[in-house]
Amino acid sequence: MIGSFITASAASCLTPPPVDHSPARDAAIRQMMSGVGHREWSMAIVRQVAGNNADLLFPGGIADVAEASFDLADRDMLAAAHGFHSRKLSRRVRAAIMFRLEQAVPHRPAVRHALAVLMMPGHAHILARTIARTVNAIWTAAGDDSQGFTHATKRISLTGIYVSTLLFWLARGGNMAAVEEFLDRRLADIARITRLKNRLMGRPF
């Protein structure tokens, strides 16, 4: 149920606006993730980390902090995109998703708290654009240059894969081999559906 809700929300916002960021905001987010990420997120916690500037850095409150944390992970993934080597686009997508999850392993409780903030009543639109932004970043990191209808359908398909894998990782993140196998199964399911669709439409695979 949770995965379906997140996926539907993100699919409704395929081209989200960028997130404002600065060295000070990034530093506060990194400290939140590593220092107090195991505690339930609130502006009181942010003020402990960022001091008197907390409300100026994050004028949108705790939802602003949570959204910024996912955006920072997106940018870290994009910065590492040169290392996603494969001739197949699907393998580069896989590499991008695994990179961001592996990098987040030490901060899994913080990711859980950030996602919980975005799932609070009134934050659905922020959740939608956050997930959509991440899916766009994954495709960009993988080197996808599709446009039009293909661009949209790829993002809708990957949203379901990413959300279900993220939730699986939050539940089973201590076993990255299991996470990797789960992601591979989801990617294989999408590949089979794509091949069937192309066969029915008379297209080459």
TrEMBL record:
COQ9 C-terminal domain residues: 128-193
Gene Ontology molecular-function annotations: lipid binding
InterPro entries from the UniProt entry: COQ9_C, Ubiq_biosynth_COQ9
Organism domain of life: Bacteria
Name of the protein this chain belongs to: COQ9 family protein
Source lineage: Bacteria, Pseudomonadati, Pseudomonadota, Alphaproteobacteria, Acetobacterales
GO biological process: ubiquinone biosynthetic process
